[in-house]
Design a protein that fits this description.
heterodimer; A: 385 residues; alpha/beta; FAD/NAD(P)-binding domain; 2 domains; five-stranded parallel sheet; 11 helices; globular; B: 82 residues; alpha+beta; Translation Initiation Factor IF3; four-stranded mixed sheet; 2 helices; 4 strands
Chain lengths: 385, 82
């Protein structure tokens, strides 16, 4: 019997499980293959929606559904926290003492935010990387009646590189609607030498920032917060004062990956082959989504396009045949929407070989993002798109 | 700037084909995760990296060790100084 064990019930883990079941249904029915997902909460969370809790009236309850309902009924689901992986015994240990054996391991353990890594972050800064944090940011914006807003990035890598810029645009639009714009200074701190990493998007975004009166600070990676003086300092040695501070928190990979020797400290990102998605050359261990160390957006979209690659490689191994490289090599494909504000958006689509060529922002791409958010539950995790 | 012996490198970041977040962001991540004295090489297929990485390195007060042209990509070597 071949035992496939998937750690993590986010986009990558859920989609991989369901795609495997489509391809291996007969073998699973006959008991030759088992597919098991371990998830720490048993709840699947649509994380891109967090921003809309802060910005667009979304409710946290609508962003969460039971993982069981998204998985094919023949996929086993174990709810529990992973404590360690014993590679020699091919065994995963859960915190409650349960042990689960595997022949093939898929690590879809995502990333976790660690705001506490920066002193005073939790008391001084707001963010939108969890439902609770986004709700707090919403309350802070409701109470805001003018002053100096600073938006920046306090760690690398982080989920969804466009998000801070999107939030700057959306907050600016909201403040105009509320008649607070004249009383508000807005500052956007970019970690690099331009507004956004993709040059063509940056060229599109920079005049929009100027039009909206948002001051752009380049090469500003937030490093420390001084709560007494209400100021943030950058890794590059500059300082900005704030009344309302909105920062992307530092992110790390799952702790047990470091403890089990699968990923290096301090980041905990899995050393992953850019084409095969194998971890550290191990033939039976794969990673996808935020958990990898690949130089790609940490976004559900990345996991979405990686899942079919791992599926093909596992199915080939189980069927005892060569990998079909048309399906089993990851080419770095990522696709995501980008909100510009004022009801407009654009689309970023690229792979390792092809840079993005985003269309001029329009209402269609904004609506596309809204529709995608609403239909996600019926499409992506189930492998329908 | 001269070619650096491979054994002096303590970390290589393969950011070839990275458009988002991009090679500079990958280098900043590597710098944040490393101790002072670490020598990092970032591989980039983005021709802009030859300009924007040295600019950031200067602003952040680190040291540009070398820019090497490899087959199909650039290798930019940086020492984290503090």
């Amino acid at each position: 019997m071949d035992k496939i064990l998937i750690l993590g019930g986010g986009v990558g883990g859920t989609l991989t499980a369901n795609l495997l079941m489509k391809r291996l249904r007969r073998r699973v029915k006959s008991g030759d293959v088992t597919i098991t997902v371990v998830d720490q909460s048993g709840e699947h969370v649509y994380q891109p929606g967090f921003m809309y809790i802060a910005m667009g009236g979304e409710r946290a309850a609508k962003l969460q559904r039971p993982e069981r309902g998204l998985l094919d009924p023949r996929v086993s689901l174990v709810v529990g926290e992973v404590a360690s992986v014993d590679e020699t015994a091919r065994m995963v240990h859960l915190a409650d003492g349960e042990r689960i054996a595997y022949d093939y391991l898929v690590l879809a353990t995502g990333s976790r935010i660690v705001p506490g890594e920066i002193d005073h972050f939790t008391t001084e800064a707001y963010h939108f990387y969890s439902a609770e944090a986004a709700t707090r940011l919403r309350s802070a914006l409701d109470a805001f009646d003018g002053g100096r807003i600073v938006i920046g990035v306090a760690g690398m890598p982080y989920k969804c590189p466009p998000a801070p810029l999107e939030v700057a645009f959306l907050i600016e639009a909201e403040l105009r609607d509320r008649g607070l714009r004249d009383r508000t200074e807005m500052h956007f701190c970019s970690p690099i030498g331009r507004a956004f990493t993709i040059e063509s998007v940056s060229e599109m975004a920079t005049p929009i920032l100027a039009d909206k009166g948002i001051e752009l600070h380049t090469f500003f990676n937030v490093e420390t917060i001084d709560p007494d003086r209400k100021a943030v300092q950058s890794l590059e040695g500059e300082e900005l004062g704030y009344d309302l501070l909105i920062l992307v928190p530092p992110h790390k990979g799952a702790r047990f990956l470091i403890d089990s020797g699968l990923a290096p400290a301090p980041g905990g990102w899995l050393p992953t082959d850019r084409a095969t998605l194998q971890v550290g050359g191990r033939p039976n261990v794969f990673a996808l989504g935020d958990a990898t160390d690949l130089p790609l957006s940490k976004a559900g979209s990345t996991a979405h396009f990686e899942a079919p690659v791992i599926t093909e490689r596992l199915v080939a191994a189980i069927e005892g045949r060569q990998v079909d490289h048309r399906k089993g090599d990851y080419l770095g494909k990522v696709m995501c929407f980008f909100e510009i504000g004022d009801g407009k958006g654009t689309l970023l689509q690229f792979d390792y070989e092809h840079p993005p060529k985003p269309p001029k922002p329009n209402q269609l791409w904004h609506l596309g993002k809204i529709v995608f958010n609403k239909t996600y539950w019926h499409t992506v995790p189930k492998g329908r798109v | 700037m001269t070619e650096l012996a491979t054994e002096q490198l303590t970390r290589t970041i393969d950011a070839r084909g990275s458009f988002c977040p991009g090679p500079l962001m990958e280098l900043i991540r590597g710098i944040r995760e490393s101790a002072a004295g670490t020598i990092l090489a970032v591989w980039s297929t983005d021709s802009g990296s030859r300009i924007d990485i040295p600019k950031w390195v200067e602003k952040a007060g680190h040291r540009l060790v070398a820019i090497n042209t490899r087959e199909g990509y650039d290798e930019i070597v940086v020492e984290k100084t503090h």
